Amino acid sequence: MSAIYGGVETGGTWCVCALGTSPDDVRECVEFPTTTPAETLDRIASFFQSHPAPAALGIGAFGPLDADPASPTWGHVTTTPKPGWQHTAVAPVLHERLGVPVAFDTDVSAAAVAEHRWGAGRGLTSICYVTVGTGIGAGLVVDGRPVRGLVHPEAGHLRVPHDRARDPFAGVCPTHGDCWEGLASGVAIGQRWGVKAAELPGDHPAWELEAEYLALGVLAIVSVASPHRVVMGGGVMQQQSLLPMVRRRLRELVGGYLDTPLLGDRIDDYLVEPALGDRAGVLGGIALAERLLAG
Ligand code: ADP
Ligand code: ZN
Predict the structure, then answer these.
(1) How many helices and strands (H and E) does the chain possess?
(2) Which residues line ligand 1 (CB under 6 A)?
């Protein structure tokens, strides 16, 4: 019998916990709102305590956070803007309550690991998973491992050219104003146009501007990290007219400079939709747990 793993996604608004081994074998799954740290961590621990203990637990959390196993504050959510959650021990508390090995990373890194393991990035050496939702985040997986460094990538806060004549909107990032997320997140779209992103029709001019910003951000990622594929998910990407426009604009921006058809006439195979949908985060927890035991 193969080991069963626990996956947790602590999102800004919802938490998801699951037990299983893969997307086709999720034995139990629950969702509840992310409230205070004490209440939320207790609900997570209680879920796992009411089932046979998993072999290991993997957590994908909103950040910024400390994912460095050598750090004294490993497993903490650190400078997050989410009220009440600054400098909260997440992984250490669950490790103590459950007594099993715990892997910890950002929610987007977890989703990237899952898309690489079972989804749109299967079989590739490296991928980038970008989510465009309430905010923007990106996880990079190289050789099956989520990329970490001094802290962890925060691609949502990279800077993209902002032509204020074309787009006078100041941006919504509380720290940077018009960073990538500040200009192109779902919240930014809603505030710029005074209509929720989900309610803007596919032929609204909002989408051409959105495609411009998304292509500029993806160009930066592609230029620095050169992932073998970029997977774009999140609520905003549900606008079906958007991905084709981002592809077209990215191809133009690359301008034929890089000698690969994947950034040219095969761009449809390069910039793709996720395969795991909403479940990528929690499945990423399961994949991180599996990786932890595999060493
Ligand atoms: P979160 O980032 O909080 O996990 P989502 O990925 O679901 O949540 O993203 C939420 C954002 O996606 C909101 O700004 C919402 O307006 C936008 N959104 C949801 N559905 C659509 C849609 N069909 N078209 C465009 N935007 C959408
Ligand atoms: Zn920012």
Answers:
(1) 8, 12
(2) 11-13, 133-134, 186-187, 190, 196-198, 234-236, 238-239
